[in-house]
Specification:
Elements lengths: L2 H22 L5 H21 L1 H28 L19 H5 L5 E4 L6 E6 L2 E6 L10 E8 L2 E6 L2
Antiparallel strand pairs: 1-2, 1-4, 2-3, 4-5
Helix pairs in contact: 1-2, 1-3, 2-3
Length: 160
């Protein structure tokens, strides 16, 4: 009596394994098609070779099992080395700017590399840095002086 169930159960297990692989590997939906083929052929074999009742049991099991496997696969993916687990934070040592280094710019002179309307780029000590003005328009090539560093903003004014 177990003989007609072997191939459909193996196909169901293969479908589950392929579904988990689909969660982990980018396949463009190809693995999903293979998994659906495994589930579909398994159900075909059960309905035709065993009985309609056994087929309905398999359908019910699939309705319950497939979402559980997908949710478990997504949770597994979150814990796997395939997922990006790091975040860029100051606690991890990442910073978008170096506060101590930028504060050394106060009083330094440079040249506007772009028009400052009021934001743009200036060359200060041979380095291109993003700067802002206090609302003034400064033409490209004008001499500028750093008057403040406010967080990550470097504030400049036009030299007179």
């Amino acid at each position: 009596m177990i003989q007609p169930y072997i191939v459909p159960v193996l196909l169901q297990a293969a479908g589950i394994a392929v579904l988990l692989a689909e969660v982990m590997l980018p396949s463009g939906g190809l693995l999903t098609i293979v998994a659906l083929g495994c589930f579909g052929y398994s159900l075909y074999l059960v309905f035709t070779a065993v009985s309609a009742f056994a087929g309905m049991v398999f359908v019910l099991a699939d309705i319950i099992l497939i979402p559980v496997v997908l949710i478990a696969g997504l949770k597994l993916l979150a814990r796997s080395p395939l997922a990006l687990k790091t975040s860029l934070s100051s606690k991890s040592g990442f910073s978008s700017f170096d506060q101590e280094k930028d504060e050394n710019y106060v009083g330094r002179q440079g040249k506007a590399a772009t028009d400052l309307r009021p934001a743009g780029t200036a060359v200060i000590d041979g380095k291109r840095v993003d700067v802002v003005t206090r609302g003034d328009y400064i033409e490209k090539g004008s001499a500028v002086t750093v008057i403040a560093v406010e967080g990550s903003r470097i504030v400049v004014r036009k030299d007179q």
